[in-house]
UniProtKB/TrEMBL annotation, chains A, B:
PROSITE patterns the UniProt entry points to: HTH_TETR_2
One MF term in the entry's GO annotations: DNA-binding transcription factor activity
Family annotation (InterPro entries): Homeodomain-like_sf (IPR009057), HTH-type_TetR-like_transc_reg (IPR050109), HTH_TetR (IPR001647), Tet_transcr_reg_TetR-rel_C_sf (IPR036271), TetR_C (IPR011075)
Residue ranges the record marks as coiled coil: none
PANTHER family: HTH-TYPE TRANSCRIPTIONAL REGULATOR RUTR, TETR-FAMILY TRANSCRIPTIONAL REGULATOR
Domain HTH tetR-type, chain residue ranges per copy: 12-72
SUPFAM superfamilies for the chain: Homeodomain-like (SSF46689), Tetracyclin repressor-like, C-terminal domain (SSF48498)
Keywords: DNA-binding, Transcription, Transcription regulation
DNA-binding region boundaries: 35-54
Annotated protein name in UniProt: TetR family transcriptional regulator
Source organism (scientific name): Amycolatopsis lurida NRRL 2430
């Protein structure tokens, strides 16, 4: 978001390199453990360039993550919820292999940094809003009973995270569809039994 | 596993302190980023005690995690699969708040360290064996169609990880039962549709 402050200038290019390196190191080491020295090394700049621009670690992390703040995981509306959710899970799995995807996972887990956490929550809230409206359209069409979007996203995304955490497991369309099928069928079955999964 | 080498001796106590501190720092910083200096500080020993005993970082991590290698997440067999799975998820959520639970999550995500990864896989394999036999008994009793235990554990545990990653969300029996109900109902519904979830 702030990367275009001085478009084309040398300072802007240096800042962009530093922020890119920060995301890469957040992906590997997390918020509390990544080192300014390594950020400088990767960005090919002197350490003082990092310290001068971001004396506060929180600010560096927040600015680095904020460059991707509007990045969504694509969730289409083809009219076929099963296909759209399975595609969404494949796109999520792909994001979890990117530096930003890993950085986001690491950053949300580090609860020490309240300001970082609220930046991340902004990313999640925007993504949740997209999911919510997709689910509402599915409900209007009678594809799915009303469902809490946060619960839904945890049900479909949680298994993907665990598959992607382990390098020895594959995650392909087969797994994406199995997860989707179980969650959609489970929500339909439990809603008709009592409806206590519905919300808002 | 090696902690009882010199039972009661000073060396054994120092080693135990170092291994405990290592798990705490793995929980916060992960495999690649935790520092020997901080391990020594926390354990109240000199840095050379850590280096001398574990010149290789992999060995320190493996020994620290191995002390908990047989730790299971309790999975009872009361004859009521729903209750037992919900209890299991509450126990998993509790473990994810402990240093070992966080350390395990961080360690499995760090794919750079092949030997560490295979130690962790041992922990997971033992846990999976417990789940597999519980699921098999449920299938014999007609409570659940045959299901791949790895898929099942990802379906029920994945959402718990995402709830526990966020300090602003609660995870109580209500959430544990909602997850359990959707997964059990979804597996029953999809198995009767085609049975392609069955395995082994």
């Amino acid at each position: 978001m702030t990367q275009a402050k001085r478009p084309g200038g040398r300072t802007a290019r240096v800042r962009a390199k530093i922020l890119t390196a920060t995301v890469e190191l957040l992906a590997r080491d997390g918020v509390s453990a990544f080192k300014y020295e390594e950020v400088a090394d990767r960005a090919g700049v002197h350490k003082t360039s990092v310290y001068r621009n971001w004396p506060d670690r929180n600010d560096l992390v927040i600015e680095a993550l904020s460059r991707h703040a509007d990045q969504q995981i694509p969730l289409a509306d083809t009219g076929d919820l099963r296909t759209d959710v399975a595609d969404f899970l494949l796109a999520l799995a792909a994001e979890l292999e990117t530096p930003f995807g890993r950085a986001l996972v690491n950053a949300v887990q580090s609860r020490e940094y309240e300001e970082v956490t609220s930046t991340i929550r902004g990313v999640f809230d925007r993504r949740l809003a997209t999911l919510r409206s997709r689910l509402e359209r599915a409900t209007l069409r009678g594809e799915l009973p009303p469902v809490d979007p946060l619960f839904f996203t945890h049900m479909i995304s949680g298994p993907v995270h665990l598959y992607r955490n382990r390098a020895d497991l594959t995650f392909s369309r087969l797994e994406a569809e199995r997860i989707t099928d179980v969650v959609l069928a489970g929500i339909r079955a439990t809603a008709s039994q009592g409806g206590d999964l519905a919300s808002s």
